[in-house]
Design brief:
By secondary structure, this protein is an alpha+beta fold. The chain is built from three helices and six strands, in the order H-E-E-E-H-E-E-E-H. Helices cover about 25% and strands about 30% of the residues.
Length: about 140
């Protein structure tokens, strides 16, 4: 049995379902990854550098298509909203317990290198390896 709304009252918006599908973030190993459009800064000081590479195969991104396209599609699926960049460059903020613990750029290697590069800064309490493993796991997906 449905609810009839008087003509003067609009039906409630159906955005709640969309909001649940379009989260704008994804999680892995206790970290929350989101696109960084505001220039997130790592909570607390000082910070340490992040400079790492991820093999596309470890992240489930091996295929015949350009790596930038594969990465954009995978991030779109994880974030629930379309994201793309011709060069495959994405800024991410990484949170743990509500605090930003890393602000990084995930990009495809230069000159069509078959590698993902992770550059940025992190909290001293966050090991680079933990960050790389969590991101690779999220990109790889379930299974």
């Amino acid at each position: 049995m449905g609810v009839d709304y008087p003509p003067c009252l609009p039906a409630p918006p159906r955005r709640a379902l969309i909001a649940r599908v379009t989260t704008g973030f994804f999680e892995a190993r206790g970290f929350r990854f989101r696109l960084d459009r505001e220039g997130a800064e790592v909570s607390g000081a000082p910070t340490r550098a992040v400079q790492a590479t991820i093999d596309p195969g470890e992240a489930g991104l091996d295929g015949d298509e350009p790596l930038a396209e594969l990465l954009g599609r995978r991030l779109s699926a994880l974030l629930g909203a379309p994201v793309s960049d011709e060069e495959g460059i994405f800024d991410l903020a990484v949170e743990r317990d509500g605090a930003v613990v890393a602000a990084v750029q995930l990009s495809c290697g230069e000159d069509d290198e078959d590698v993902l590069e992770l550059l940025g800064e992190r909290s001293p309490s966050l090991p680079v390896r933990a960050l790389v493993e969590a991101l690779a796991e999220a990109l790889r997906g379930p299974g």
